[in-house]
């Protein structure tokens, strides 16, 4: 019996034209692509380390870890503590906003919202993540700060509070979306097990779903913190460039990132100590996020509930 | 169709009357009437998709978790209609335990799994919890195997052990009824055998309704058998009678393996 299409013949013909060479070359191309990001990272870290070394060889460590930052002074001083302080404070404020709001939003989306509502709400929320940070910065400066001034009259036009809050708003979608992913991937059979024991919806959420998803939730927090630490435009615009070492969040303070912006857009001559200080700040910033990620890995590994 | 209806009213735990259930527009249960009696094992058999799992999940209203489900009719549990507005779902489920098709322990230690129920219902005392854990694990015939590793993760146990852990977890809140939805379908024959022995033991203290795919299992362990087909209860009665002299032709066909 004749078949309409003789598949065997076609296969026989085509199998020879499949080049072994392509099979061998393509994996190498893939490897190359994978290497690009690794090589770039290595390159950047090397640059940071070498140029930071020049900075640290000129400036004694005692000065680096002092609270006096006056790079353009006739008698310059390069204390980094005001910058670290500014970075940590603004990030802390951001987390105070992002963690509670993001996590509860994730709980709503994953456990309480109907399928239909989740499908409309999640993309809308993720739009927040697509807004350019410069817009957020402008929003902090021209909207949130004036609003806060009504509550706190002594608030400066540039302050740490307002950009901190706005950064928090910016990373809510990140926390919510990643935590929601982690919570939704908890198998339904586990929820059923708890419901069958007479647990309420809240008990199931808090005592089964969140513990089971904790590694993903913590990972989302830490990624959000990293994002806040590295965030630049919002704090540059909203928090200003005061280099004071202060814990008063109503005052202007500078973050590490804002310092780099100020110097690269100003006129720090190549080869000056001020110029190399940029690399030192960059290196410290890098170490911050690196440590953060290591902590995240440790925590999520330790508290992981395997299922 | 109903055997010993009414004559020993006090023994009746569940009395299902004219129960209908729909998933959206698809009717999954049609006019079900049956009684489940105290300290008996009631097996629910039938081919896939006949509504037997849906039925058992209606008894503790687990079907409520599916938004598109609608029901009509009444299910009296010790004389109270469980669909009545005054019935608190959570309370009902504490007296009607459930064991699922696939073992579903929580990703916690063996101990934490067993005491999860008592804990959420307000028992904090460590000593009491330990007592409850020991008792429940003994009742589930698991104690000897796990007593030295109560703090290990439950997922380190074998499938059969996990299922017995889930039974222990249900027993820990001292229910009155145990619903089992194909509890051995994911287990090997040895583990299945252990669960069956356990069910035989448990029926002294609990009323058990078990959905099963295996007719042999139903014949081995149950006192009453209900045969479901396409959402209808075809025949219900003493297991012995159902398996030897079924009244309905369809029951006979199913039991002799002519379909399903």
Question: How is this structure best described in words?
Answer:
The complex is a heterodimer of chains A (307) and B (260). Chain A is mainly α and 307 residues long. Chain A has two domains: 2-58; 69-302, MetI-like (MetI-like fold), CATH 1.10.3720.10. In chain A, 74% of the residues lie in helices and 1% in strands. Chain A is built from twelve helices and two strands, in the order αααββααααααααα. Chain A has helices at 7-17, 20-58, 61-64, 81-112, 115-128, 133-151, 161-184, 188-195, 201-230, 233-239, 256-265, 273-302, and strands at residues 69-70, 77-78. A two-stranded antiparallel sheet of chain A has the order 1-2. In chain A, strand 1 and strand 2 (77-78) form a beta hairpin. Chain A is globular. The N and C termini of chain A lie far apart (55 Å). Chain B is an alpha/beta fold. Chain B has a single domain (2-255), classed as 3-Layer(aba) Sandwich (Rossmann fold), CATH 3.40.50.300. Chain B is built from ten helices and ten strands. Chain B has helices at 52-59, 89-95, 110-120, 126-139, 143-146, 159-171, 189-202, 215-221, 239-244, 249-255, and strands at 12-23, 26-37, 41-45, 69-77, 80-81, 96-99, 177-181, 207-211, 224-229, 232-238. In chain B, the strands form two sheets. A six-stranded mixed beta sheet of chain B has the order 6-7-8-3-9-10, sandwiched between helices. A four-stranded antiparallel beta sheet of chain B has the order 2-1-4-5, with helices on one face. In chain B, 46% of the residues are buried. Residues 1-9 of chain B have low confidence and may be disordered. Chain A binds chain B through residues 114, 187, 189-190, 192-200, 203, 207-208, 211-212, 305-307, and chain B through 60, 62, 65, 67, 89-94, 97-98, 100, 102, 104-108, 116-117, 120-121, 153, 155, 166, 169-170, 173.
């Amino acid at each position: 019996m004749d078949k309409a299409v003789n598949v065997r013949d076609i296969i026989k013909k085509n199998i020879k034209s499949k080049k072994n060479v392509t099979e061998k070359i393509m994996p190498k191309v893939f490897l190359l692509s994978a290497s690009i990001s690794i090589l770039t990272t290595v390159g950047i870290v090397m640059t940071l380390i070498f140029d930071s070394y020049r900075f640290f060889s000129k400036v004694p460590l005692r000065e680096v870890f002092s609270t006096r930052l006056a790079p353009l002074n006739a008698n310059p001083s390069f204390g980094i503590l005001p910058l670290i302080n500014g970075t940590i404070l603004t990030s802390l404020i951001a987390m105070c906003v992002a963690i509670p709001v993001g996590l509860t939003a994730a709980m709503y989306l994953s456990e309480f919202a109907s399928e239909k509502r989740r499908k409309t709400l999640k993309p809308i929320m993720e739009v927040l993540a697509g807004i350019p940070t410069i817009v957020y910065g402008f929003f902090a400066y021209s909207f949130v700060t004036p609003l806060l001034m009504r509550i706190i009259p002594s608030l400066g036009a540039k302050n740490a509070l307002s950009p901190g809050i706005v950064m928090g708003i910016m990373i809510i979608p990140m926390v919510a979306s990643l935590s929601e992913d982690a919570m939704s991937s908890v198998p339904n059979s586990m929820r059923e097990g708890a419901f069958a024991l007479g647990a309420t919806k809240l008990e199931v959420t808090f005592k089964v779903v969140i513990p089971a998803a904790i590694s993903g939730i913590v990972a989302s927090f830490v990624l959000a913190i990293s994002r806040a630490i590295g965030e630049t435009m919002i704090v540059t615009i909203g928090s200003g460039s005061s280099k004071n070492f202060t814990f008063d969040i109503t005052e202007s303070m500078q973050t590490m990132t804002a310092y780099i912006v100020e110097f690269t857009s100003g006129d720090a001559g190549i080869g000056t100590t001020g110029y190399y200080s940029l690399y030192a700040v960059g290196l410290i910033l890098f170490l911050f996020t690196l440590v953060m990620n290591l902590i995240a890995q440790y925590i999520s590994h330790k508290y992981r509930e395997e299922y | 169709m109903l055997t010993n209806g009414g004559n020993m009213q006090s023994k009746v735990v569940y009395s299902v009357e004219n129960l209908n259930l729909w998933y959206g527009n698809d009717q999954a249960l049609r006019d079900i009437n049956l009684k489940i009696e105290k300290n008996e094992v009631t097996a629910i058999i039938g081919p896939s998709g006949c509504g037997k799992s849906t039925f058992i999940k209606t008894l503790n209203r687990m079907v409520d978790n599916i938004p598109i489900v609608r029901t009509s009719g009444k299910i009296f549990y010790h004389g109270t209609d469980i669909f009545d507005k005054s019935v608190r779902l959570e309370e009902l489920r504490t007296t009607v335990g459930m064991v699922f098709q696939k073992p579903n322990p929580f990703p916690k230690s063996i101990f934490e799994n067993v005491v999860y129920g008592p804990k959420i219902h307000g028992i904090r005392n460590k000593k009491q919890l330990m007592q409850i854990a020991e008792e429940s694990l003994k009742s589930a015939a698991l104690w000897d195997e796990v007593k030295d590793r109560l703090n290990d993760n439950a997922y380190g146990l074998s499938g059969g052990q996990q299922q017995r852990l889930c039974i222990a977890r249900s027993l820990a809140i001292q229910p009155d009824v145990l619903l089992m939805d194909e509890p051995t379908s994911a287990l090997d024959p040895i583990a299945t055998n252990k669960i069956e022995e356990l069910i035989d033991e448990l029926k002294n203290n609990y009323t058990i309704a078990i959905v099963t795919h295996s007719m042999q299992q139903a014949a081995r362990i149950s006192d009453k058998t209900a045969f479901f087909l396409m959402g209808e209860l075809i025949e219900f009665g003493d297991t012995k009678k159902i398996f030897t002299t079924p009244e309905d032709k369809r029951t006979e066909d199913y039991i002799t393996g002519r379909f399903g």
